[in-house]
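User: quick one - fold this with iron/sulfur cluster bound?
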Amino acid sequence: MPEDRTAVVDDSSRMLEKALRDLSMQYYSLDRCHQCGICTEACPHTNLRKAERFSPRVFIQKARLGLIDLAGGELWRCTTCGSCLQVCPYEVPLVDIIVSLRNLVFEQGAGYVPPSFKAVLASLAASGNPWREDPDKRADWFEELAPQGESRPEAPEILLFAGCFPSYDRRGRSIARAAVQILREAGIGFDILGNEEKCCGDSALKIGDMKTFERLRKANLEAFSGRHAERIYTLAPHCSHVMKTRYAFGRDNGTAAKPFLLLLHELVVEGRLPLGEVKRARAVFHDPCYLGKYEGITEEPREILARIPGLETAEMAHHGKRSLCCGAGGGGFWLDTLKGERLAEIRLDEAVEAGADLLVTACPYCLAMFEASRASDNRWAGLEILDIGELVLRSLSDKPGM
Amino acid sequence: MTGLKAALTLDEFEIPSVIVEKSGELGGKVRGYGKTFPDFRSGRALVSGLVKRVDSTGMIRVLRNCTVSGIRTEGDHYRVRLSDGTSLDAHAVILAFGFEPFDATRQEEYGYGVCPNVIAAPELEALLDPLGPTKGRLLRPSDGKPVRKAAIIFCVGSRSKRTDSPYCSRICCSYSTKQAIEIKESDPDAQVVCFYMDIRTYGRGFEEMHQYAREIGVKYIRGRVSECCALPDGDILVRAENTLLGKPVQGVFDLVSLSVGMTPSPDTSSLAEMLGIELGTDGFFISADGGLSPHDTGREGIFLAGAVTGLKPIRDCILEGTSAGGRAAAYLRRRRA
Ligand SMILES: Cc1cc2nc3c(=O)[nH]c(=O)nc-3n(C[C@H](O)[C@H](O)[C@H](O)COP(=O)(O)OP(=O)(O)OC[C@H]3O[C@@H](n4cnc5c(N)ncnc54)[C@H](O)[C@@H]3O)c2cc1C
Ligand code: SF4
Ligand code: SF4
Ligand code: SF4
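Assistant: Sure. C-alpha cells for the protein plus iron/sulfur cluster:
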C-alpha cells in the first residue's frame, strides 16, 4: 500500500486555524512561524534529559499540518512560561495558540484531558479552590493570626489576595502569615477578602476551561466590589497577572492588581522594615515566569536580597528574563510528572551548581514545585527553599508576634 | 561606491558635480573589503579605480570630512549649507550616503561587545583582508590564536520583529558565504559552520558560490542561534536547534562572527526631515510613483541612489549610481531647455 500522505494536503489545518481564530484571545497566525527553532532552544523542556521532549517549533509545524495528536499528552506539556515569546523573531503568540487549542479540546470534548485536571477543575467550579476544601475555612490561617478582638481597618490602604496555596496548604500558609506580619510591622492598614476569596482562575484559564474561569472571575469581582480595593497585592504573580489582563477592572475604577513583591520592595527600599542579620547563606533567586518574563520585574527581588545583612548572593545559569520555568504554570502544577522529567529539577540543579544553599522565589507555586522535587532526591538536601517574604520576615530584627 | 559612480556618470554628460563625503576617504564600505562576492575581486581595487577616474576629470570637486547641514530652495536652485560653514549651489542633489550595519550589541544573547571573540561581519572582513590589521591571517581578538573553528551566525538584526527589522538584508547570506569560503580556502582544515534560517543567495553567481562553499566543506546548520556564551579560555559556546534534525545542538568555536544586516544610515531621518521627503516603515527612503521613478523623490531635483533605498550588493549600487547620474542629467537638460 502506498504511504498515506493525505495529512499534508488536506483541509484540517485550515479548519484548525479557523477554529483557533474564532476562539483566540487576540490575532494569531500559525503561518507567521518560520520554523527557526529558537523557541525550542528557549523552552525549558529542551533542558530535560530525555529523548522525547516537547518542542514548540515542532508543535507549530504539526498544528499547521493538522497533525497534532489530540489523544496524546503533547498539548498539555506547555507551562505557558513565556520563554518562547521572549525570543521569537516573528512574535508568534505560542501561548495563546496552545491555550486556544486546549480550549477547543476542552469545550468540544474532542481529545485527551489529563484526568488530574478534570478533578481540579470540578473542585474549582464547586468550591472555588482546587482541593475540594471547605470554602468557609479559606481564611482560617488569617483568623488564627489575628490578635483577639482586632477589628479590620475601615479604610485599608491595600487589599491582600492570598490565593489558594497560601490559604490552604500547610507550607503555603507560612507565606501568607509572613506577608501579614510584614504589613503589620510596616504599619500598613490592609484587608483580605476572607472566605469570599476564590481561586483567581489562572489555572482554569490556561488549561482552557473558560466557563470555570468566568465563574471564578465573577465571584472575585463581586467580592472586590464590596471593598476598598484600589490597590490589590497578590502573593502569587499568577493572580495579579490574570487580574490585570482578564478581570478588566482598572479601566473604570482605578483598581490595580500587583504582585506582593512590589510592595515588599517598596517597603524595604523606603527603609520601613528594619532588616537585621540572618544566618549566613548563599542565596540564588529563581525568577517566577509571571514576574520576570511577563512583568519584567527582575531587579526588585535582587535589590531586596542585597539589603539583607548576612546574605551572599549568586546567580543561576538561567536568570532574569532568561530564567527557566519551575513547571507549575499552565496547569503544570496539577500534572503528575515522573521523577527525572520535572522542570523543577533543572532549577534545583542550577541552584546547587551556583553553590547556593538557599533558593529564594516570589511565587508560592514555584516554592511548592521546588519543595516537592527536593524531597525526591538527596542531592538537593542541603538546599533551603524560601519565599522572599519569609526571608524578609526572618531578617526583621524585631519579629512581630513571634 | 554609489556616489562615485553617479558623479562619474554626470561627468560623461559634461555636468560638473561636488561629492560631499563625511569621512576622510571616498568609496564607502566597499573600500574596506579585500574580496567581494560573487567574483572575489578586490573591493579596494574597485574603489581605487573609480577614485582615480574621479581625480583625473576636472569636473568633480571632492569635499572630504564634510557633510550637509542644511538645504533650502533659492530661486531656481538649491542652497546647500555644509558642516564647515561654507555653502554651495546645486541644481540637483543625489542622496547616496549608504547604510549602517546593524548594531550587534542590541542582540544581547550573542554577547557582542562582551566576549571579544564574538565579532561582527565588518570586523571579520577586516581580519580576512590581506592589507588589514592581521595581514589577512584569521587570528582571534582575545589572544591572537589562529582560528581553527569558526561559526557564522546569519540573520543577526534581520528578519526579526523583536529588533524592529523584520526585513531580509539580502546580502548577508552571500557575504557570509564568501567569508566562509575565504576561511576554508586559506586553511582547508579549518572548520566553518554557518547557522542559518534560509539561504538567500539570490543573484547571478551567488548561488553557485553557495554550492561551491558546500563542496569545499563549509557546514550549514539550519536553526536560529539562541545564545553564545564565553568559556574561560575565550572559546565561544554556541547553541541552536538543528531544525532539520529536530535536535538541540551546540558547538565550541574559536571565533563567532555575526552576520549583521543593514539599517538606515543614522543621518537618514534628519535629511528626510530637512528635505521633506518620505521614508518607508523600514526607515529607508522610498522613491516616487510607487517605484516607477526609482530615483525620484517628492522633491524636484532630489534623487536617491544605492543603499539609501534599502539593501543591495555592489553590483546594484553601480547600476544605481549610473542610472541616477543619467536621471539627474536628463532632469538638468530638461530644466535648461
Ligand atoms: C560585512 C559586509 C560585507 C559586504 N560584502 C559585499 C560583497 O562582497 N559584495 C557585494 O556586492 N556587496 C557587499 N556588501 C554590501 C555593500 O557594502 C553595499 O552594497 C555598498 O557598501 C553600498 O554602497 P553605498 O555607496 O550605497 O553605501 P556606503 O558604502 O554605505 O557608502 C556611503 C558613503 O556615504 C558617506 N556618508 C554617510 N553619511 C553621510 C553624510 N551625512 N554626508 C556625507 N557623506 C556621508 C559614507 O562615509 C560613505 O562613504 C557587504 C556589506 C557588508 C555589511
Ligand atoms: S510557554 Fe514555555 S513551556 Fe510553553 S512552549 Fe513556550 S517556552 Fe515552552
Ligand atoms: S521562534 Fe517563532 S518563528 Fe521560530 S520556530 Fe518558534 S514560533 Fe516559529
Ligand atoms: S540575506 Fe540571508 S542572512 Fe541576510 S537577512 Fe536575508 S536570509 Fe538572513
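One thing worth noting: The first helix of chain B runs from residue 2 to 12.
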